[in-house]
What does this fold into?
Amino acid sequence: MIRLSIPLRQALSRLSLPVLIAVAFGTMLLGKADTLLVERSRMALADVLSPIYAALAEPVGAARDMMQEVRELIALRADNVALREENERLRRWQAAALALEGEVTLLRRQLSFTPDSEPSFRTARVVADGGGTYARAVLLAIGPHMQVRKGQVALDERGLAGRVTEIGSRSARVLLVTDINSRMPVTLEGSRARAIMAGNNTDRPRLQHWPEGVLPVEGERVITSSDQSQAFGGLPSGLPVGEVRWSASGAAEVELYARLDRLDLLRIFDFGLAGILPPEAVARPEPRRGR
Amino acid sequence: MFGRREPAPGLMRRLDALARAAMPTVIAAVLMMLAAAPVGVPSGVPAVALPCVFFWSVFRPAAMPPPAVFGLGLLQDLLTFAPLGVGVFILLLVHGLALSWRRHLARQSFLVVWLAFSGFAAMAAGLGFALQALLGWVLPPIAPALHLLGLTMGIYPLLSFLLTRTHGAIRAAEEVA
It folds into this structure.
């Protein structure tokens, strides 16, 4: 250690706070100027921490499961009645679905229709809440063998949850659809009209930009809309998103199927190279650009 | 300079002193990482960082030097999705202000300190909101800021209890040494 005279040392220690505040401003500018660097350092930290979080998720999950079990035991009787009723209803639907499936196969054979390829997906565990005060995102632990690319969509067991935005070597960040920066092309199932679902950091993202003459109907199902542009990384169509709800203030919102407050496993869908590639994409492999 | 004072400290002794000096920062960092774990509470990380920095700045400034505050701020910004530098700036500001008022604050009862801390937390939340709006150039919703403020104010008594215990342990160890 360098020996300094006492006045000099005092002066240095008095100076360090203002200097560090200035450095903080510098960091803010750097963060604005070089988003790639910030993103990389974030993911490096996330990579280091994700094993810790994965270990921590076990006891947290166990505690949560126990709470859930207690709650379920209390509601067992009511659940049973509801389930029996639902079973009855679903049985009727199953019959209808089987009949329709037969009809569809018949019609397809007549039309020589080429069906879409089955989507393949991988499942990853959510290890941390990667969001902050103003952001909604989760961190996934991914194995080294898992091929995850930016822009892939993530679904929980019920519906669309978000989209992969940043990738490290052991972790990936998924921006949830409720985040204020999230924009998703969607289709209203009833009218087949396209719209944009924009997150606003609340539980229900809003619908925007639906075409003139079409009004989203309360309770209408919302599904993802196919978009083959690079910006969306080839979003598959027909994935379940949620249902339209009109808010009290008169805004069209989407009540999501996905339960974003209790995500534990996410399915990452891979549509990149499975479908037919546009001619210009064949020459170069899948680009992995920074932005 | 002042004559012989004490023999050169041995390795163990130096390690001991280093561990004692680094403990508050390490505790704060670990708490922040734990707060980022998936328990369903957003904005937990800033709510943990602020009480730690405030407490040590008021009651034991030597344990929380500005570089450590800077490091904690950086960790906070990287753990949350906030624009880089915002947390650093807020924590440094809180540290500086708490340091200049510590003579009045350190002698007060817990309730008064809590009240003062609530003022700091309100300032931090307001500043965070303003900086977020400025750097992102959109007006963020106000509810998360209020949520953060409530969480920060509510978590202080618990953290203060833990940190007071730690502080007592450090002092006891110093008296023995």
Q: What stands out?
A: Helices of chain A lie at 6-33, 35-74, 76-111, 279-283.
